[in-house]
Amino acid sequence: MSRGFFITFEGGEGAGKSTQIDQLARSLREEGRDVIVTREPGGSSGAEAVRHVLLSGAAEPFGSAMEAVLFAAARSDHVEQVIRPAIERGAVVLCDRFLDSSRVYQGVTGNLDDDFMRNLERVTVNGMVPDLTLVLDIDPEEGLRRASARRGTGAPDRFEKETLAIHRRRRKAFLEIAKAEPARCVVIDASMSADKVTAAIQRAVQLAMAAASTDRERSEA
Ligand code: Z5A
0.90 cut: is pTM over it? Predict the structure, then answer.
């Protein structure tokens, strides 16, 4: 593959994103592909420094617009230091959350203005739009139950501890994005067993990669 392939995983807490990224990375590496696994907020040294500030709730008093700016600053560093160089050398990049999380968490449930969010996204992403976004869809009650079982006695983070009604608005918002951008997004039923979710993801990835190489061959012909 000359240019790489950029896949993002989105959805609510406990949907199984990390579990499925590990599975997909393993199977793509078995095919001999160069695979980069990364996450947001974080993924580069600059962005990881901002992650704790965001997830601890230390930035919450600044308000949702300033939190959005911090997520954007972290994303810009991550895109330019990690994602773009990997894609340019032909790697497959698997990223746990990306631009849709900002649209949903800051834009929709942070009640931020659409123009503000669009402008911030344009500057931050700087053309690095995912080739494929897998939206892992799950009832928030089940997702939060899984997240809390995994966390054990640890405290929930700034976003996890919000009300069920807010988590439901987020689920709806992810599904609306997927409906509005069907060429980029595939919704996966994340309530199935982990093995079934893995199989559904592998099908979606194979289809999207095959379509991308056909498009590339056509444009080069
Ligand atoms: N955020 C934001 O507001 N704006 C932004 O722009 C960005 C992020 C980028 C990052 O949290 C927070 O930042 C996030 C949004 C906000 N909100 N929160 N909270 P994070 O990185 O700490 O966590 P997360 O992204 O929400 O993921 P998660 O809660 O860690 O869950 P997950 O990765 O989707 O799930 P998992 O760890 O793979 O699975 C959870 C548990 O369920 C685990 O014990 C698994 O073994 C189990 N599991 C997984 N799959 C299954 C199935 N199929 N059946 C049963 N059990 C399963």
Answer: yes
